[in-house]
Specification:
Layout: H1 3-22, H2 27-31, H3 34-51, H4 54-69, H5 76-93, H6 99-104, H7 108-118, H8 123-177, H9 183-194, H10 196-239, H11 243-251
Helix pairs in contact: 1-10, 3-8, 3-10, 4-8, 4-10, 5-10, 5-11, 7-8, 7-10, 8-9, 8-10
């Protein structure tokens, strides 16, 4: 669980609740309008489902939630260290010496790339296979982002529809009031209740759906960066590049603040956390 995402959602919705309470609006009045919540949430999901094939929507929604709320550390610096160590061993003992290391890797993508190198595949074939896999990952991330972006786009519109329906009901009910003295008060209450739907539509779009879409985009951007590092490393190992030059080449992909390896007590560099495939 990524507690930063969870904390952000709690802070955002909490700010709305506190603002409503101290602003003189009873939160129970707003959050108790279940018909408005049902209209906005149900209508938003309905419109989004219509926008995509069912498999695209269901897969993208589930993948998006898992990606946004999962706490994944891609360990870019450790991956670079691992690839450099593989390059050193390949230069000393040959590519076949990497077979045991490749088998022990947790990351399917890197393991597949190294196995292709060990099997003596052509450089262009290796690049094509690995880049095809990257394109597939990118497509999955794009679809997940699109689903949540669509949810964020439809939500305010459904809120406006709910408000219009509330205003229609209010105007229709005016004739029943006649010339009673509480007409102004009744109109005020009915108008306020009508705008609850708009409130929910805008709130869910800007505090839930669109932030999650941005989070998904960022997560898959990190994953694609790791994949690019792996591709360059695998091809450099096949070409027999100097390990020191390979390290400098791969470090160029990483933020300068993250280029120093994390050293454990005793001076040992931790093993690379090659778990990026979980995304």
């Amino acid at each position: 669980m990524d507690f930063a995402t969870l904390a952000g959602l709690v802070l955002g919705f909490g700010a709305i609740f506190v603002a409503a309470y101290f602003g003189g609006t009873d939160p129970a009045v707003i959050f108790g309008r279940w018909e408005a919540i049902f209209l906005v949430v149900g209508g938003t999901f309905g419109a989004t489902i219509v926008s995509f094939p069912w498999r695209t929507f269901s897969t993208g929604f589930i993948l998006g939630l898992r990606t946004a709320f999962s706490d994944v550390d891609f360990h870019e610096r450790e991956i670079v260290s691992t690839l450099v160590s593989f390059a050193e061993k390949a230069r000393r003992e040959g590519l076949l010496a990497l077979e045991n290391e490749a088998t022990a890797l947790d990351d399917d993508f890197l393991r597949q790339g190294l196995q292709l190198v060990i099997d003596g595949r052509d450089t262009e074939i290796i690049r094509k296979v690995m880049e095809t896999e990257v394109s597939y990952v990118q497509e999955r991330g794009t679809k997940a982002e699109m689903v949540f972006t669509a949810l964020g786009g439809y939500s305010p519109t459904l809120g406006i529809i709910g408000t219009v329906l509330g205003l229609i009901g209010m105007l229709k009910g005016l004739s029943a009031l006649g010339n009673t003295t509480n007409v102004a008060g009744t109109i005020g209450v009915a108008t306020a209740e009508a705008f609850v739907a708009t409130f929910f539509g805008i709130m869910l779009a800007n505090l839930l759906w669109l932030p999650l879409a941005s989070r998904i985009k960022e997560r898959f951007g990190q994953l694609l960066l790791v994949r690019e590092i792996m591709i360059e490393g695998v091809l450099a190992i096949q070409a027999g590049d100097n390990p020191r030059l390979l390290e400098e080449k791969l470090l160029a992909f990483i933020d300068p603040r993250d280029r120093e390896p994390e050293v454990e007590e005793g001076g040992a560099v931790p093993e690379a956390g090659l778990s990026a495939s979980s995304a």
